[in-house]
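Weekly structure sync, notes
Attendees: PL, DS, HV (note-taker this week)

Item 1: HTH lysR-type domain-containing protein
DS walked through the input record. Source organism listed as Streptomyces malaysiensis. Sequence as pasted into the shared doc:
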Amino acid sequence: MCLDGVDLNLLPALDALLSERNVTRAAERMSVGQPAMSASLARLRKHFDDPLLVREGRTLTPTPLALSLTPLVREAVAAAEAVLGRARDFDPQVNRRSFTIMASDYVTLILLRPLVARLAQEAPLQRVNVIPVQADCAEQLHKGQVDLLVLPTEAAGGRFNYPHRHLFNDRYVLVADPDNDAVGPELSTEDFSQLPYVAYSGPLQSIADAQLDSLGISRAVEMTTHSFVIIPLLVAGTPLVSLVHERLTRCVAEQIRLRVVDPPMPLRPISEALFWSPRHTDDPSHSWLRERIAELAGEL
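Item 1 (cont.): predicted structure, written out as tokens:
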């Protein structure tokens, strides 16, 4: 398809190149060979009279023009996918599709890892790219830079006026090393406040820490991390403690020895939900993937 001599098939290739910043991964995402993707990049460079991606060491870095094009290209591709998606049914055994899901590493481990494993068996033509939750997650969802967002409804609050679907609940538990004598069955709030604490310090505040703040409970923070999944590893073999998702402790139980106890304060459980842009509500491929994710969430 062409518009004033421009091959519009280059748009998805440009989107993949700007997102992946790697010719090989972009080719895999588009299900084409690396030579074909390299040829598309060469044509794009000629059209824009700009290198778009320049090599710095082992990585490709976008030029200022490429950075300015990124949100426009993503919106254009998302709009095209929405239009064309309504024009036909989606057969996961026949139609190829690449989805980008924004989720925490905790959700990636307990929910999206099983999703990828199931798709490999049931729908091998489909590709799932997972990126970490970022502060501008709502904006990225609006612009079509991500297809789906998994986030606790408590974190979304009133900022997310998007269609969504409940996936699962989880509660917080206190974790410590099994040999940590400071953590016993009768731990008090005062004792908790004096224990060396690992805090999550990501783009969005931890729901657990937000609740502790609202309860006026202090923490002796000794370490911070951007990863939920790494926290049990930091606790094991150290005097550190933390509040983590109970499902996460079950997932790592065979690999990490932990003492898991109820926290000494009342904490509300969290509700993980799946969010998407209204433009994708009736998209057959999005609807299919949302159902697959919901099915897996129901099996947790």
